[in-house]
Amino acid sequence: MIYTVTLNPSIDYVIKLDNLKNGEVNRTKEEYVYPGGKGINVSLILKELGYESRALGFVSGFTGNYIKDVLKDKGLNEDFINIKNGFTRINVKVKSSEETEINGQGPNISEEDLNKLYEKLDTLRENDVLVLAGSIPNTLDSSFYENIMKRLENKNIKIVVDATKNLLINVLKHKPFLIKPNNHELEELFNVKLETVDEIITYARKLKDMGAKNVLISRGKDGALLITENGETFISNVAKGKVKNSVGAGDSMVAGFIAGYLNSKDYKEALKLGAASGGATAFSNDLADKEHIYSLIDEINVERR
Ligand SMILES: Nc1ncnc2c1ncn2[C@@H]1O[C@H](COP(=O)(O)OP(=O)(O)O)[C@@H](O)[C@H]1O
Ligand SMILES: O=P(O)(O)OC[C@H]1O[C@](O)(COP(=O)(O)O)[C@@H](O)[C@@H]1O
């Protein structure tokens, strides 16, 4: 079974306007509301690609109820824990001449509620896949994902981590199956500016040396590159299309990669389906659907470097 964990889900409020002016009243031309958060997005795309998963995490308040209702309508297998305080955050995604995002903090999670999550995670078995994705509330320590990995050590579970800064660095020694920082997050991890593909490869390899089995670096419209557990480097181009909303492109890539790997056990194929899934979501208002993803697959070329 595949499990995704979204500690901090969101409602993504996507608004489109011609020209955002700071300090003035702006009016939208289009607006959309979607359930969001990295693990949830991964589960939704996995479903499109034919893989059932169980979405775990925490929700609260009226926004949390909305997320659960939509996921139920979409037929997603969800097992979110309801927390009493606060409300699940609303993340604002402004699509104007540039894409600007304002992500909320999310409610605090009590020790008692965290224990409920650990109980669910303790039921995972050999060969399960676990996706730990997205930010965690400020009150939790940056060892949070690391502690989950420690708890599940020796169970032979493939663990995918999509996180930033120390939350990501701390898990590396526990050898996650896959990590997927984007190129900006890679720069932030090492406090460097990376201009060329070779420079990006050098730093991606450092993450592998620090323990990650497979390192996937997404680069938005510039494609992606993958360092595999066997030490191979693959580079992918992108599909062509008009960007409508690239929120969730990274999560779609993670889901596409997992599905592609489970289909074929071939990292090249995994990267290909990941790139098609990321592109199809960037070219959609919401997350991509299966037809769109597969319609882009022949445009993706993956080359060995
Ligand atoms: N404008 C785009 N055109 C085509 N493909 C894209 C575009 N934006 C994203 N993608 C695909 O989705 C992947 C993930 O996107 P990216 O923006 O890097 O992730 P994140 O949302 O994590 O920052 C990219 O590596 C690429 O394959
Ligand atoms: O947990 P974080 O890091 O604040 O990210 C949450 C946001 O990221 C998303 O999951 C999208 O992520 P990507 O664009 O990286 O795929 C949104 O749905 C959500 O608003």
TrEMBL record:
* Top-level enzyme category: transferase
Under Pfam families, the record lists:
PfkB
Q: Which GO terms describe its biological process?
A: carbohydrate catabolic process; D-tagatose 6-phosphate catabolic process; lactose metabolic process; small molecule metabolic process
- Where is each Carbohydrate kinase PfkB domain found? 7-282
Instruction: Recite the UniProt keywords alphabetically.
Output: ATP-binding, Kinase, Lactose metabolism, Nucleotide-binding, Transferase
**Similarity-based family:** Belongs to the carbohydrate kinase PfkB family. LacC subfamily.
User: What name is this protein filed under?
Assistant: Tagatose-6-phosphate kinase
Q: What's the source species for this entry?
A: Romboutsia hominis
